[in-house]
Amino acid sequence: MKIKKEVIYFLLLLVIILPLIFGISFKIKPTEPVINFFQEINSLKKGSFIVVTISFDPSTKAELLPMLDALTYHLFKNDIIPVYMNPLNANVTNLGYLSIKKIARKMKKKENSDYYYLGFVPGDKSALQDMGEDFYSVYKKTFDGKDLENFNIFKNIQKISDFSLLIDLADGNSTLDLLTYINTKYGVPMASGVTAVMASEYYPYLNSGQLLGLLGGLRGAAEYETLLDMSAKARRGMSAQTFAHILIFILIIIGNYEYFKGKRHGNN
Amino acid sequence: MKELIALLIVLIGGVIMTLQYFLNIPVLDLIYKNVLDWSIVISTFALLLAIRSLLARQFQDLKFKKVKSIFPLTTIISFFTVVILGLIFGIGEKTPVDFIYQNIQVPLQATVFSLLAFYISSAAYRAFRAKNFSSTVLLISGSIVIIGRIPLGDFIAKITTLHINGSVISLIDFPAWTKWILNVPNVGIKRAFIFGITLGIISTSLKVIFGIERGWLK
Amino acid sequence: MFNNAYIFADSNGIIKSGRGESLLFFIFVLILFTLSYLLKIKHLPTRKLSGIEAIEEAIGRSTEMGSPILYVAGLKPVPAVSAIAGINVLGKIAEVAANYGTPIISPHNNSITMISAREEIKSGFLRAGNPELINSSKIFYITDSQFPYAASINSLTNEVKPGAIFYMGTFYAESLILTEHGQSTGAIQIAGTDSVAQIPFFITSCDYLLMGEELFTASAYIKKDLNSLKGVLMQDIAKIGIILYIIIRLLSKNL
Predict the structure, then answer these.
(1) Chain A contacts of C172, Cβ < 8 Å?
(2) CA distance A89 to chain C (A)
C-alpha cells in the first residue's frame, strides 16, 4: 500500500503543530560552527563597530528572524555597535528594522548611537563592491534619514574593510557573494547565518577559515540561543522540527519496506 | 557595425575589469568605481522596466481572461495601493504600508516557504530508496543527518555512551557521524563542484570577452 | 616551494595584496585557454549530456499533449554567467519548440534576464523559420522576490499544465517547491544549475539534470562547433592540473 501525499502532509502538519501547542522543548547541544560564531562575537572588544547584512526575504523569517534576534541581543549585551543594512533584499527592511528596534527598546539601546540601521540601496552586487571602494558612495544616510557624516563613529570609516566584522544572515547566495566581493577582495572577516537548506553549501568556506562561524537553520539559531542561555523562538521551534525529522525518518523506512515488498512480488 | 561596437565594449571592459582586480593601478580603480556607479543606475532603471512588464501582463490578463480576473485585479489594486500609501504616508513604523507588509506580505511569503517542509517529506518518502549502491549511500547518509541534527540524536548518543579505561565512547553517535558527513564527504564533493563551476565560469567569461561566445549578442 | 603567496605579498607592489595566488591561477587558466585555441585540433569528442539530449523528447511529448512548455530562469540575473548559460540553452529549446510549433511561456524575476530571454526565443524561432509563432507577451516579469516568484510559477503550472518544464540558472530554497509541484503535474522536468546545495532536490524531482559545470558546457555541446568546444577542453586540462597540484601538495606535506 502506498501512502498518499495528502496523508503525509496531514501527518506532518500534526507533528509540527502539536509540539508547538503543548510547548514541548528539548535541550540542544551546540555544535562547533555555532560555538565558533559565538566566540567570535565574544572576542570583539566593547564598542567594536561591525556590519550585519540582513539578506533574507520575509518568507524565511521562521528560520532567520530568531537568528537576528539572538544576534542583536548578544551584540547589545556585549556593547558592540552594529550597523545593520539590507543592500541585497529590499523586502526585509521593515521586518528587520522593527525587530531590532523591539530588542533595543527592551535593552535600553538608542538608535543612531548604540546601533545604526541603513536599510536598502539598489545596485545588488555592484553596491557591495562599491562599499569596498567608498562606503559613502552607497550609504549616505541612515534608514530614518540622518546623515552619516554627522556621527563621530563614522569618521573612521572610509571603506567596508574598516569594520571589525561582517555578519550575513541569508536565505540565498548572498553569503557567497559577500565572501567573493568583500571577504576575499577587501579582507573583512566574516561569519554567517543561513537557512538549513543552504547550510551545507558553506561548509567548504567554514573549513577553509573564510567563514569564522556558521549558524545553520533553526537548529543553528536554537544552539545560539542555548549558548546565550535564552529560550526564545528557535528553541521552541526545534520541538516541531524534531518531530518532523522523526516522521520523515519513519516515512523513509516505510517507503523502503514498500519498495522491497513490491520488488519481492515482482511489480517494480 | 553595431555588433563590432558591442564586442569592443565587452573586450575593453572585460580586460580592464580583470586587470583592475589583480593590479595596483589607480586609474583602473577609478574606472571600476565609475562602472559600479553606472551599474547601480542601470539596475534602478531595470526596475521600471519590470514594473511596466508586470502591469502590462496583468492588464492583458484582465482584458482577455474573464474567469480568473480576480488574480490580475488583486495584483493591480495591491500595486497601486502600496505605491500611493507609501508616497503619502511613507514606509516607516506604524504607517499603512508597514501594516500591509507585517500583516499580509510577511505571513503570505512565510506560508509559501513553509510548503518546503511538506515537499521535503513527500520527496524523501519517494526518493530515499535503496535501489542501488549510490542510492543506498544517499539513504544511509541522509538518515544519519536527519537524526543527527535533532536532540534525539544527542539523546541516543548519551544513552549508548560507554566508559572504557577512562575514555568515553558513544556506540551510536549520530551527531558525530553527521559532523563527519558534513565536514568530509560533503566538503570534498562541494569543492570538486566549486572547481568545475569556477572553471566553467572563467571559460564562459573568457569566451564572451574574446567574442567566441556571441549568444548574448542579439 | 609551493607557497607562492609570499612572492606577491607586497601590498605596495604592482599586484594587489593577497591576490597573488589567484593571479597565478588565472594566468594558468589563460595560458591553457590560449593554447587550446592555438592548437590545430580537428575533432573533439564529447560525452553525452542526457539533459540536452532529452530536450527534443520533452518538447515532442509536450506537443503531443497539446501543452505549452515552461522555461523558468534562476534567481541570479544576467549578467551572471549561470543566467547567460541558461539563456544559451533556451536558444536550443526555442529552436526545437519552433520546429514543433509549441509555444514557450517564460516567467522572470529580473527584467534584464526577461529581455535576454525574449531575444533568445525570438532568434530561436527565426532560426527555425517560424517567426509567426513568436509571442513576446508570454515572456514576462513577475517579481524579484524569491518565494512569491515560486508561488506564481506553481500557480502558472496549475493554470497552463505545461508538458515540459525547464529550470536553468541559479536556484535556492525555492527549487524543491518548484520541482515537486511540477512533478505532481506530470510534466517532464529538465534542470540545469550551478547551485550545489540544490542539486539533491533537483535530482529527486526532475527527470534530467545538468549539474554544475555541465550547465556552462551545454552551450558548446549544443553548437558542437570546435571553437566553443575548445573552451571545454581547457576546463578539463585545468581540472587535471588542479588534481595534480592537490596530489603534489598532499605528498609534499606528508613526506
Answers:
(1) 171-173, 197-198
(2) 8
Task: Indicate the helix (H) or strand (E) that contains B111.
Answer: helix B106-127
Per domain, the residue ranges of chain B are 1-80, 90-127
The backbone torsions φ and ψ at residue B95, rounded to the nearest 5 degrees and listed phi first, read -100, 165
Testing the interface with C: which of A4, A5, A55, A57 to mutate, by most C Cβ within 10 A?
A: A57
In CATH, the number for domain C50-222 is 3.40.50
> How does residue C12 score in pLDDT terms, banded at 50, 70 and 90?
low
Count chain A–chain C contacts defined by CB atoms under 8 A.
38
The Cα diameter of chain C in Å comes to 69
- pLDDT means over runs of 10, chain A (268 residues): 86 94 89 96 96 92 94 97 91 87 95 94 80 89 92 92 95 89 89 92 91 95 94 89 95 92 74
pLDDT at C4 over 50: no
Angle at which helices C146-160 and C174-184 cross, to 10°: 10
Of chain C residues 78-97, which have a CB less than 8 A from chain B? 78, 81-82, 84-85, 87-88, 91
Using alpha carbons, select from C174, C200, C178 the residue that is nearest to residue C189.
C178
Whether residue A4 is found in the same domain as residue A72: no
Q: Is B115's CB within 8 Å of C177's CB?
A: yes
How high is the mean pLDDT of chain C? 89
Domain span holding position A259: 1-25+242-268
